[in-house]
Amino acid sequence: MRRRSLLRHPVLRYLLFFLFVWDSLRVLRIYSRQAEVTLHPTPPPRNQKRIYITCQLWNAESLLRIHWHNALLSLVEKLGVENVFVTIYESGSFDDTKGALRELDTALEGLHVQRQITLSDITHLDEISSQPTEHGWVKTPQGEVELRRIPYLADLRNKGLKPLEVMASEGQAFDIILFLNDIVFSPEDVLRLLDTNNGNYAAACSLDFSKPPYFYDTFALRDSNGHEAAMLTWPYFRSAKSRHAVEQFAPVPVASCWNGMVAMSAEPFLGKNPLRFRGISDALATSHLEGSECCLIHADNPFSAAKGVFLNPNVKVGYNGTAYDAIHSTSAEMNPISILSAIWQNRILRWTTTPMFKEWVVHNRVRKWKQGRSDNEPGEFCLVNEMQIIVENGWKHV
After folding, report:
1. Could you tell me the pLDDT band of residue 121, with boundaries at 50, 70 and 90?
2. What is the DSSP letter of 148?
3. Fold of 51-397
């Protein structure tokens, strides 16, 4: 009886009516905007920009031969051979990634593309069997000293930036660094990414998918308030600023992102104190914390606050051909019912869950680590309650 009388209360009825009208108008606006975005032509290449393309690959033979090889060659031609430099670092693959990269090297040579492709025989087993060095190792709860995954990955990404240093000393300048993961992409995806926010950004990221409709890289993505995503499907975000932008299919302001493909201004990577990838300190990692090098780079980037970090929700890449085809099919477009359902799912999650407890655990451990130290960790928002180490066939949680 009480529930029925509550539902008959005029204030609640007016509130529900208002919410119904508000959501209806909101759904129509989002649906209309989605239709507009699909009609937008691919922006032309910014030929005045010089692009430094870098990638680290491991066990990617199939992807290279089926997708990546042709996509990169086509991208280079669209950007202009004279405007690009390609650097790829590969090490210790079990498959024929080296053979596929030799074929790519030959094709790039045929186009007269400036490049550096490094094929290393150093395997994960070689790395973890070496004598522990001063940095990049951690004592696990089992008492073993293990090679940390994130400093290892940061080092690989920094190797991809070494040619940039050399060319800068020789007077060759680049405007944008394009970081590519082992993803399925098209040249049009890259052109849209480079045009994010009309080309004004410290960093612009795509959205990545392995099993659509769920996005993949939760480790590096943080909303405008530094929180992890509220949900793995659209509209993803907890913060109002990020959520409202994604509902408009506009560049989404975030604290951090990577998600398969990233364009960053080259300027902070050059100069006296160049920006580089890193992991958190080993002492902090001992507290069972870890943070993605792809998130920490934004925390360290002096351009992030001034120019902004943006996720482009209209640039979607996949980790396999099936995922890429799915996210670019007409069936991936949302209808009004699915939009309304997603809005309410996000709303309920925001009302009933909070990242506060996870973040409190991280903050408390960072606070204890800081005691008696002069060190600081600007990327606290990147950290999660995890310990990750390298193993012979990849990596694992400890």
Report:
1. very high
2. B
3. Spore Coat Polysaccharide Biosynthesis Protein SpsA; Chain A (3.90.550)
Distance CA 211, CA 237 (A): 19
Kind and range of the H or E element at 283?
helix 282-285
CA distance 348 to 207: 24
CB 213 within 8 A of CB 316: no
Q: What is the DSSP string of 53-112?
A: EEEEESS-HHHIIIIIHHHHHHHHHHH-GGGEEEEEEEE--SSSHHHHHHHHHHHHHHTT
Phi, psi of 177 (to 5 degrees): -105, 125
Distance CA(64)–CA(152), nearest Å, equals 23
Please give the Cα distance from 327 to 346 (Å, whole number). Answer: 20
The shares of helix, strand and coil residues in the chain, as percent rounded to the nearest 5, are 45, 20, 35
Q: Which amino acid is at 149?
A: R
pLDDT at position 373: 87
pLDDT band for position 3 (50/70/90)? low
**pLDDT value at position 47?**
66
What would the pLDDT profile of 250-267 be if each residue is shown by its tens digit?
A: 999 999 999 999 999 999
Question: Rounded to an integer, what distance in angstroms lies between the CA atom of residue 215 and that of residue 383?
Answer: 19
Residues in the chain: 398
